[in-house]
Design a protein that fits this description.
globular, mainly alpha, 60% helix
Length: 111
């Protein structure tokens, strides 16, 4: 999976230098999105299953700080830096599939 998806995409440009591992980097934020987008070409059945999930773009778009962060850190990063050929809303939808349908285990405050 790795070699067919994000590795293939990231290897098209010179290596990304990450010097501060305590900060978020668009490369890390985009890996799940890349894997999902690659389903469109590599696994049509899974892409169709994914595409049936809720993304709630209209509601998420109202959360301007979140929407803008996704626009800069994932959408623009994938389109401008890695020249991925997907329209903005498809990328935002994939981000939404994960954001809306994922289960998150929060560890803050847990000892």
């Amino acid at each position: 999976m790795h070699s067919q998806n994000e590795c293939k995409i990231f290897s098209t440009k010179k290596p990304i230098k990450i010097t501060d591992y305590s900060k978020h980097h668009p490369a890390y934020q985009s890996i799940l999105t890349i894997r999902c987008l690659c389903l469109k070409e590599n696994d049509a059945k899974r892409w169709e299953k994914l595409h049936r999930m809720e993304h709630h773009n209209s509601l998420r778009k109202e959360l301007k700080e979140l929407w803008n962060r996704n626009e800069v850190n994932t959408v623009r990063f994938l389109k401008d830096v890695y020249k991925m050929d997907f329209d903005d809303m498809t990328i935002h939808s994939v981000i939404g599939y994960a954001d809306i349908n994922a289960f998150e285990i929060r560890t803050e405050g847990v000892e």
